[in-house]
């Protein structure tokens, strides 16, 4: 099956169908367990024929990946406070607030549960945002950081807490992650 991004046309009926289907997925996940999400159920909620969904997405997993990629792409602004600490604290607090939202959390859990690509759909743009913060710091002459290590240290605990524990990852808690991470960078 071809990648869903190559099958989506930018406007007209196609864009309306995609918006209706994405909205239907969000509504169904808010009302029911992710296991009950099927293409026919989404089609019925969106008011389209199931064949449309099978042709465009092929499976519920591919549909969830498309919805998650759309939802998590460009939804946070990368801050520019003038310092690495300020940028990371503001950004990670915004990520924590975002993943604490019940609808966002339901989408993340369903997407991750849909298969190996699901986790990538939920964090790909976060890695790009973190990379932009790190590149800006390097352009200012600051410490050269590794994006993967920073993501493991900052996003790993935040997403773990959001997805696997009943305790939400608050913005204040996220700021302490940043402070701890930056302290480890200063330790020889």
Automatic annotation (TrEMBL):
This is TetR/AcrR family transcriptional regulator. Pfam families: TetR_C_11, TetR_N. Residues 15-75 form the HTH tetR-type domain. It comes from the Bacteria. The keyword Chloroplast does not apply. InterPro entries: Homeodomain-like_sf, HTH-type_TetR-like_transc_reg, HTH_TetR, Tet_transcr_reg_TetR-rel_C_sf, TetR_C. Gene3D superfamilies: Homeodomain-like, Tetracycline Repressor, domain 2. The keyword Transcription regulation applies. It comes from Streptomyces lonegramiae. Residues 38-57 bind DNA. Keywords: DNA-binding, Transcription, Transcription regulation.
């Amino acid at each position: 099956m071809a990648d869903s991004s190559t099958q989506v046309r930018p406007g007209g009926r196609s864009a309306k169908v995609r918006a209706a289907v994405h909205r239907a997925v969000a509504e169904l996940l808010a009302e029911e367990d992710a296991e009950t999400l099927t293409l026919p159920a989404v089609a019925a909620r969106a008011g389209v024929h199931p064949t449309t969904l099978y042709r465009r997405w092929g499976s519920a997993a591919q549909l969830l990946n498309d919805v998650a990629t759309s939802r998590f792409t460009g939804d946070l602004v990368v801050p520019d406070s003038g310092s690495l600490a300020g940028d990371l604290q503001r950004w990670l607090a915004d990520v924590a607030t975002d993943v604490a939202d019940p609808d966002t959390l339901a989408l993340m859990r369903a997407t991750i549960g849909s298969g190996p690509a699901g986790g990538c759909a939920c964090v790909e743009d976060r890695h790009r945002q973190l990379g932009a913060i790190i590149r800006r710091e390097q352009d200012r002459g600051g410490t050269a950081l590794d994006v993967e290590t920073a993501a493991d240290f900052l996003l790993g605990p935040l997403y773990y807490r959001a997805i696997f524990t009943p305790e939400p990852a608050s913005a204040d808690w996220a700021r302490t992650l940043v402070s701890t991470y930056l302290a480890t960078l200063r330790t020889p």
